């Protein structure tokens, strides 16, 4: 007992000494340190004479804003959604608060909130989620002219950069809008873009609708691709994160202007050096059979089919008819079909997942097919609502929606199928699942990884 008591005293002394060390290490309490940080951030935000550009990367496209913060907790906001949001500021309020970390909260409705609006009739996006964006952000770090932040809920990335007076003028007087439109019109529809890295060519595909850049290259005979979101600045496409290849990091793509027009493009490396983006009338990399890239443990395991991924204009008439019939069946019950996804992440199995919403909640349904390869083609045999290893329904809604989904679930059993690159420049965001008997009968979608 005496030994235990002595050990207790020793531990107590150790803990006491640690506490004294902590007090010597920090000159103030945690809440006092956060309060001091908030005060400093408030000064930084309001002392920028020409405000701040905000580069926001959502769960989808990137968007560019301008914020002018005042001491009276009001903020004037411009956004590059449309001509009206670039020419007319939206006045709302903000606050800085301690949410466990220093945070910036846009606490009344503004252009930012449009991206997070759960009603797609307001500004598009996904029902219940919008563009998976935020209006409350935690401060991460800061340098001389930039503040880096992360969304508190959807983890969207926001980078604030101090604006100069002339930059603000160009952003709001139509110059920015004109230059972006001119850049989009400059992009060739019938040529392949690329840059060279140590004599290896890297294909560049710019999707101006999704505001993303896909970099593609060959590793031996293998086709590899990386897609990164971007926002527009006055001079370039600023990537969400750098694209790294062969020891070089690309942080942006800038346009070259001559006589008031876009005359070329360059990749901008992390060290601010540049490399010319060239054009070719033929593919600059070897395009692997897309079917060899989809499946368990391969580069892609899912195909997303829906207006949010690929426009209905890109669908064949037979598939559009089947999809619309399912969509109409759902609408009769006062609900909305958002999208369909095909999952190829298990051997000999296809899962067709649908997402349906009633405006306040969403319902996932999984339908199972047996997958077989017949002469290098894919044959799907419908089994029914998916059951997991416990013989219970994976997402229990499938048994209730099975009859409504029949036009779509039966579409995939009428023939064998194969994957094909879509028309134009091959890109993983535009892929077709084509029927063997009729090449004009296909579903179009965007390849990706399995979503939980």
Characterise this structure.
- The protein is α+β, with helices and mostly antiparallel strands and 452 residues long.
- It folds into three domains: 32-172, Lipocalin (Beta Barrel); 175-280, Lipocalin (Beta Barrel); 290-448, no CATH class.
- Helix content is 22%, strand content 40%.
- It is built from ten helices and 26 strands.
- The chain has helices at 2-25, 30-47, 83-87, 111-116, 120-123, 165-172, 175-186, 317-331, 398-401, 406-409; strands at residues 52-57, 62-69, 74-79, 90-93, 95-98, 102-105, 136-142, 146-151, 157-162, 192-197, 200-207, 212-219, 222-232, 236-245, 248-258, 261-269, 274-276, 278-280, 302-305, 336-346, 349-357, 362-374, 377-385, 417-421, 431-435, 442-448.
- The strands form three sheets. It has a nine-stranded antiparallel sheet with strand order 4-3-2-1-9-8-7-6-5, with helices on both faces. A nine-stranded antiparallel sheet has the order 17-16-15-14-13-12-11-10-18.
- A hairpin with a 4-residue loop joins β11 (200-207) and β12 (212-219).
Summarize the structure.
This is DUF4302 domain-containing protein. Helices cover 22% and strands 40% of the residues.
Largest sheet: 9 strands, antiparallel
- Count of beta strands: 26
How large is the share of residues in beta strands? 35-45%
Share of helical residues: 10-25%
- In whole angstroms, how far apart are the ends? 55 Å
Strand arrangement, largest sheet? Answer: 4-3-2-1-9-8-7-6-5
Structure annotation, total helices: 10
Mean pLDDT: 86
Structural classification: alpha+beta
Radius of gyration: 26 Å
Number of spatially distinct domains:
3
The assembly state of the depicted protein chains is single chain
Protein name: DUF4302 domain-containing protein
Organism: Olivibacter ginsenosidimutans
Pfam families: DUF4302
């Amino acid at each position: 007992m005496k030994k235990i008591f002595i050990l207790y005293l020793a531990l107590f002394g150790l803990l006491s000494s640690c506490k004294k060390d902590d007090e010597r290490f920090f000159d103030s309490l945690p809440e006092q340190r956060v309060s001091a940080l908030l005060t400093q951030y408030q000064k930084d935000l309001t002392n920028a004479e020409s405000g701040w550009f905000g580069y926001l990367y959502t769960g989808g496209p990137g968007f560019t804003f301008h914020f002018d913060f005042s001491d009276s907790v009001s903020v004037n906001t411009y956004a590059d959604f449309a001509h009206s949001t670039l020419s007319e500021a939206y006045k709302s309020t903000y606050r800085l608060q301690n949410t466990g970390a220093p945070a910036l909260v846009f606490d009344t409705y503004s252009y930012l909130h449009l991206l997070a609006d759960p009603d797609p009739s307001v500004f598009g996006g996904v029902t219940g989620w919008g563009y998976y964006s935020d209006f409350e952000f935690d401060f991460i770090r800061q340098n001389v002219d930039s503040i880096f932040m992360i969304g508190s809920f959807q983890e969207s990335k926001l980078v604030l950069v101090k604006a100069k007076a002339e930059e603000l003028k160009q952003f709001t007087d139509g110059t920015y809008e004109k230059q972006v439109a001119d850049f989009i019109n400059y992009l060739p529809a019938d040529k392949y873009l690329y840059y060279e890295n140590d004599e290896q060519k890297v294909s560049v595909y710019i999707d101006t609708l999704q505001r993303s850049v896909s970099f593609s290259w060959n590793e031996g005979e293998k086709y590899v691709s990386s897609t990164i979101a971007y926002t527009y600045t006055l001079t370039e496409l600023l990537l969400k994160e750098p694209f790294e290849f062969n020891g070089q990091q690309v942080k942006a793509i800038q346009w070259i202007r001559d006589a008031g027009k876009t005359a070329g493009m360059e990749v901008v490396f992390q060290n601010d050096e540049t490399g010319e983006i060239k054009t070719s009338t033929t593919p600059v990399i070897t395009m692997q059979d897309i079917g060899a890239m989809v499946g368990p443990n391969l580069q892609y395991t899912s195909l997303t089919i829906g207006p949010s991924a690929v426009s209905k204009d890109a669908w064949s008439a037979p598939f559009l008819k089947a999809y619309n019939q399912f969509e109409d069946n759902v609408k009769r019950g006062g609900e909305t079909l958002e999208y369909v996804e095909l999952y190829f992440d298990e051997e000999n199995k296809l899962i067709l997942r649908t997402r349906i919403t009633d405006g306040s909640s969403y319902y996932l349904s999984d339908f199972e097919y047996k997958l077989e390869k017949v002469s290098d083609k894919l044959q799907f045999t419908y089994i029914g609502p998916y059951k997991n290893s416990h013989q219970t329904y994976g997402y229990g809604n499938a048994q209730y929606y099975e009859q409504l989904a029949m036009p779509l679930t039966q579409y995939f059993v009428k023939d064998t199928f194969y994957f094909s690159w879509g028309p134009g420049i091959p890109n993983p965001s535009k892929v077709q699942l084509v029927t063997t008997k009729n090449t004009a009968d296909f579903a179009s979608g965007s390849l990706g990884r399995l979503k939980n």
